């Protein structure tokens, strides 16, 4: 039995009804809700999964089911820490654990957000190599060329909102796109409406985004939205002096301020 | 006013009630003449200004935007402008990445006593936008349904 | 139905004649930076993508656009209003090039929904002005299951013309409908006599994964089954499946007002969204993901065949490929049948 299977069987024998982890799917791994000890053999650890399990933990339907065991990889842990700091997750309703050494080592439990932060302290953000080429390309462009690039990208968006659904930090029960008085985000897929949606999404993510890339993986047409969130995450962390991907106890970068925030464009 | 070219910039100003709006009032009562291209939208505080409104202004045909409020430490609601400043730093960076022309957006602090400054801000902006020209790149994309462009592309 | 042969030069000539006739041509195009292939307007045969199994999006946007203006209104003086209704003349003659047999079959289901009983003017206009040229499939992948839903890599149902590519760069051309014939006539001499090639030799092998009649039988009593919850647990409710699907037709009517003028639009919607069935009273009959997943399956495989005699699924596999949570509809259907 693998370590993860052992742990799941043990949990399911106790007060946990479900263990959320990954199983083998049609294209890599996929999220798996394990309800029985027989199914526990299907659980696998995946450090590089394309979905973030924390996205399920904010759904009311899942919360209503009671205590849930979660086999978390690094990105799931980051999301859980951030969600807990935003009071969206009750750590007592989770039986949270990871498997060290990218799944090859021992099981490690987490009882509190402090436990998670201590564990994550020396872990880097997920690799952003896939965005580096795009970054270089965009840096070399003029403002007009960048506009043309993004309008072209956004003309492909179909407003499926997979980016919103896949992101653990997008948890508003009534999303701004669902509000039609006033209509902040036009729901139809015109390039402008698509751009406005992404601007809104990325702005609402700034300072909260953990760089997991679930949004990028979810986009069916492959628009580089993960690049946008990631770039804002990193650039703004430098600007406002916070550690990217680390949950802040006293508020996010956009809900707080420093009296001496610096800028060079206000006259 | 220089009217050699026909283009008259359309500028929308998002201002806070207690400082900039009062300052603009003072410009008027002081009988200072200044450009008439600006439509002022009054907010209780700059902290209330949603960044989406700026995009809506451009989409609606504005060629330039002015955002103005109380100086730091002078906010009528104590910290609204601090939040706004953070938001603007973030948003402006986002706009730069996307290639939106941030030269067309002017952020300032204008207090209730700075009637002359408001006139300068407006005049400078109008001159600047006149040089930059109408913001065709933006309105073209915003008018997707005007030209039934969707019939031309997927 | 007429069978002809067209060689490589002939294909190129015919394609040019289609463009020269002023038709807007949609074909699969590969994006430079990643491997996704999707339908775009093309101006030459070189732009058309090669060596892929399936496009990400279906071709349905050619006939059922993502967002479409129903009418525009303007009120210049108080009490007066001018209405600019949908003008069928604005819709260009279109050819969808190199869609798959599953896409063509998808249009039949779409037409059942949007153009049967009540004829939707917008849909009908687009449909009448569009010629569908499908290419049979030489390749398939694990997500394809057309043969399980009464389709196949060489099915001609729904196509106006079907081409089967041959090793010499030419193709077997099957002219199936009058519209297809009219398109062929744009370059009739390019279409040579049938050279006796058998299409079946060039078709991909798509295994049958489940028996559709058994599925239908099982679904009749499945409304209250626990299986919906089991299957939908990992669904994120994102909506991608409905948007990439060639038969999904759910739409939303939206307003785009600008003061005294504006437009009313029809745009795509997805039954997977939580707010899809939200009532103004606050009640939501499909508040749980399991209810929405059940709706999707029953609609496509039970309600539609009962009402319009066609399935709401052509086995193209796009939903499974696009799904961020790997729902894999074929897997789910197979497990229902078992």
In short:
The complex is a heterotrimer of chains A (267), B (154) and C (338). By secondary structure, chain A is α/β, with parallel strands linked by helices. Chain A is built from eleven helices and five strands, in the order αββααβαββααααααα.
CATH second-level architecture of chain B: 3-Layer(aba) Sandwich
Strand residue content of chain C: 15-25%
Helices of chain B, by number, come to 5
Which class best fits the helix and strand makeup of chain C?
Answer: alpha+beta
The multimeric state of the shown protein is: heterotrimer
Radius of gyration of chain C over alpha carbons?
Answer: 21 Å
Please count the helical segments of chain C.
Answer: 10
Residues in helices of chain B, as a percent range:
40-55%
Low-confidence stretches of chain B: none
Q: Would you tell me which CATH topology of chain B applies?
A: Rossmann fold
Describe this structure in words.
Chain A is of the alpha/beta class. Chain A has helices spanning 3-12, 54-57, 60-63, 74-85, 113-120, 129-139, 143-154, 162-166, 191-205, 214-218, 225-240; strands spanning 18-24, 29-34, 68-71, 94-99, 107-110. Chain A is globular, with a radius of gyration of 20 Å. Chain B has a single domain, classed as Rossmann fold. Chain B has helices spanning 17-29, 51-59, 80-98, 115-132, 136-142; strands at residues 11-16, 38-43, 64-69, 105-109. Chain B has a four-stranded parallel beta sheet with strand order 2-1-3-4, with helices on both faces. In chain B, strand 3, helix 3 (80-98) and strand 4 form a beta-alpha-beta unit. The N and C termini of chain B lie far apart (45 Å). The relative contact order of chain B is 0.22. In chain C, strands 3-2-6-7-8-9-1-10 form an eight-stranded mixed beta sheet. By secondary structure, chain C is of the alpha+beta class. Chain C has helices spanning 8-20, 101-114, 121-128, 178-184, 212-220, 227-232, 240-244, 289-308, 318-322, 329-337; strands at residues 2-6, 24-30, 37-42, 67-74, 82-85, 94-99, 130-135, 161-165, 171-175, 191-193, 251-258, 261-268. In chain C, a hairpin with a 2-residue loop joins strand 11 (251-258) and strand 12 (261-268). Chain C has one domain (2-337). In chain C, 28% of the residues lie in helices and 21% in strands. Chain C is globular. The chains are: A alpha/beta (267), B alpha/beta (154), C alpha+beta (338). Chains in contact: A-B, A-C, B-C. Chain B binds chain C through residues 60, 145, 148, 150-154, and chain C through 24, 26, 38-41, 57, 61-62, 65-69, 90-92, 256, 258, 263, 265.
């Amino acid at each position: 039995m693998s370590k993860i299977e052992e742990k799941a069987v043990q949990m399911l024998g106790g007060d946990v009804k479900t263990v959320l982890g990954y199983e083998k799917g049609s294209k890599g791994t996929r999220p798996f809700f394990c309800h029985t000890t027989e199914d526990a053999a299907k659980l696998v650890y995946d450090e590089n999964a394309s979905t973030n399990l924390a996205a399920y933990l904010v759904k009311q339907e899942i919360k209503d089911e009671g205590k849930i065991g979660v086999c978390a990889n690094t990105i799931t842990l980051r999301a859980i820490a951030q969600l807990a700091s935003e009071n969206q997750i009750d750590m007592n309703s989770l039986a949270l654990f990871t498997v060290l050494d990218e799944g090859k080592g021992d099981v490690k439990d987490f009882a509190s957000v402090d436990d998670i932060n201590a564990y994550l302290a020396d872990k880097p953000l997920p690799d952003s190599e896939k965005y580096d080429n795009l970054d270089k390309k965009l840096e070399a462009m003029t403002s007009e060329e960048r506009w043309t690039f993004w309008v072209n990208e956004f003309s492909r968006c179909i407003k499926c909102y997979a980016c919103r659904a896949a992101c653990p930090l997008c948890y508003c029960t009534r999303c701004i796109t669902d509000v039609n008085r006033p209509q902040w985000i036009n729901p139809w897929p015109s390039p402008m409406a698509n751009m406005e949606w992404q601007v809104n999404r990325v702005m609402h993510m700034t300072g909260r985004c953990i760089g997991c890339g679930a949004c990028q993986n979810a986009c069916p047409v492959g628009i580089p939205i993960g690049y946008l969130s990631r770039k804002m995450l990193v650039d703004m962390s430098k600007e406002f002096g916070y550690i990217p991907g680390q949950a802040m106890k006293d508020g996010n970068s956009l809900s707080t301020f420093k009296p001496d925030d610096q800028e060079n464009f206000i006259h | 006013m220089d009217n050699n070219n026909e283009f008259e910039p359309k500028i929308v100003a998002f201002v806070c009630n207690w400082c900039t709006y009062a300052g603009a009032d003072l410009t008027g009562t002081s009988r200072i003449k200044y450009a008439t291209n600006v439509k002022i939208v009054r907010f209780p505080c700059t902290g209330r200004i949603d960044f989406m409104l700026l995009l809506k202004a451009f989409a609606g045909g504005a060629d330039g935007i002015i955002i103005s409020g109380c100086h730091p430490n002078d906010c009528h609601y104590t910290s609204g402008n601090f939040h706004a400043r953070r938001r603007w730093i973030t948003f402006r960076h986002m706009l730069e990445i996307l290639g939106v022309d941030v030269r067309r957006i002017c952020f300032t602090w204008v207090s209730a006593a700075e009637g002359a400054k408001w006139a300068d801000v407006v005049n400078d902006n109008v001159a600047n936008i006149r040089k930059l020209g109408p913001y065709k790149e933006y309105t073209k994309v915003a008018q997707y349904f005007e030209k039934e462009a969707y019939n031309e592309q997927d | 139905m007429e069978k002809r042969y067209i060689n490589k030069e002939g294909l190129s000539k015919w394609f040019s004649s289609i463009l020269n006739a002023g038709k807007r041509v949609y074909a699969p195009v590969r994006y430079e930076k990643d491997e996704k292939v999707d339908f775009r307007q093309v101006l030459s045969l070189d732009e058309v993508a090669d060596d892929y199994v399936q496009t990400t999006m279906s071709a349905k946007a050619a006939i059922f656009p993502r967002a479409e203006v129903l009418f525009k209104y303007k009120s210049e003086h108080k009490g007066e209003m001018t209405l600019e209704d949908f003008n069928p003349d604005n819709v260009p003659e279109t050819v969808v090039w190199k869609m798959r047999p599953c896409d063509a079959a998808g249009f039949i289901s779409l037409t059942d929904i949007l153009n049967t009983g009540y004829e939707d003017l917008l849909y009908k206009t687009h449909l009448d002005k569009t010629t569908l040229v499908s290419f049979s499939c030489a390749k398939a992948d694990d997500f394809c299951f057309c043969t399980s839903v009464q389709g196949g890599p060489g099915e001609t149902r729904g196509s106006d013309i079907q081409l089967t590519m041959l090793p010499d760069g030419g193709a077997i051309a099957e002219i199936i409908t009058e519209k297809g014939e009219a398109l062929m006539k744009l370059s009739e001499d390019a279409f040579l006599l049938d050279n006796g090639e058998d299409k079946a030799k060039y078709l991909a092998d798509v295994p049958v994964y489940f028996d559709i009649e058994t599925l239908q039988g099982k679904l009749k009593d499945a409304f209250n089954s626990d299986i919906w919850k089991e299957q939908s647990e990992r669904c994120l409710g994102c909506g991608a499946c409905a948007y990439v699907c060639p038969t999904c037709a759910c739409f939303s009517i939206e307003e785009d007002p600008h003061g005294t003028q504006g437009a009313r639009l029809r745009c795509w919607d997805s039954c997977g969204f939580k707010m899809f069935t939200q009532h103004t009273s606050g009640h939501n009959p499909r508040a749980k993901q399991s209810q929405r997943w059940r709706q999707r399956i029953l609609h496509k495989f039970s309600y539609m065949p009962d009402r319009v005699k066609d399935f709401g699924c052509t086995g193209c596999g796009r939903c499974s490929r696009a799904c961020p949570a790997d729902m894999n509809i074929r897997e789910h259907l197979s497990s229902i049948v078992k």
